[in-house]
Amino acid sequence: MALALDPAAQDLLFREARTANTFTDEPVTEEQVQAIYDLVKYGPTAFNQSPLRLTLLRSPESRERLLAHMAEGNVPKTRKAPLTVVLSYDLDFHERLPELFPHAPHIKDAVFAEESARESAGALNAALQAGYFILGVRSAGLAVGPMTGFDHDGVDKEFFGDGRQRVLLVANIGKPGPDAFAPRSPRLSYDDVVTAL
C-alpha cells in the first residue's frame, strides 16, 4: 500500500468523514479541545507563524451573540451544537515570531512590519491551521461542521472589537446526531487535478 496511515484512520479522517449538520447533546470537554490543539499545533505554517486563534463558545449568551450574524440556514445547527468555535487569525502574530522562529528573530520586522503583509500571511496560514484543526477534531472521534455562511464583519465586531483578529470560519463540533450527514458530493479525479511537467 502507498500510504503508511492505517486504512481505518484514513476512513476516520477522510473517506468516511462528512460535514455534520446535527449533533447529540454529549458535551465536548476542555480536555478534548486541548488534546486536539496539542496534536494539530505541529502542522506547518510559514516561518512557524501560527496565526490561528480559537474562540470557544460554550455559554448560551456567547452563542446568541454569534447567531445574530449567522446565515439563516446555519442558525439551528449552531444553536444546538455542543460546542461552536470561531476560528480567526491574529494580525499581531508577528509579535510571537522571536519566540516561535528563534533562529531568525529579525523576520518579525524584516517581513511583517507592514500590516498588509500580516493580513495576507495570517489569512493563508490560519486557513492551513483550520484544515489541521478539522482533521484533529475528526481524530478525536468527533464530527465537525465548518461554515463560512455568516456576516464576517459582524462577527469580527462582535467578538474582536479591537480589530486585531479576523474571523475565517465558524465550526460546530460534537458527536453526530440523527441524519447528521448529507450524501458525499463528487470529488475531482487525480487526472483532473494533477499536471506532471
Short description:
The protein is of the alpha+beta class.
How much helicity do the residues have? Answer: 40-55%
How many strand elements? 4
Strand content: 5-15%
Give the strand order, joined by hyphens, for the main sheet.
1-2-4-3
Instruction: Summarize model confidence as the mean pLDDT.
Output: 96
Structural class: alpha+beta
Element string (H = helix, E = strand): HHEHHEHHHEHEH
Global geometry: globular
Strand count, sense and barrel status of the largest sheet are: 4 strands, antiparallel
Number of helices: 9
Distance between the termini: 25 Å
Gyration radius over CA: 18 Å
Mind explaining what this structure looks like?
The chain has helices at residues 7-15, 30-40, 60-67, 75-80, 97-100, 107-110, 115-139, 152-159, 190-193, and strands at residues 52-57, 83-90, 143-147, 165-174. The chain has 197 residues and is of the alpha+beta class. The chain has a four-stranded antiparallel β-sheet with strand order 1-2-4-3. Helix 1 (7-15) packs across helix 7 and helix 2 (30-40) crosses helix 7. The radius of gyration is 18 Å and the shape is globular. The relative contact order is 0.22.
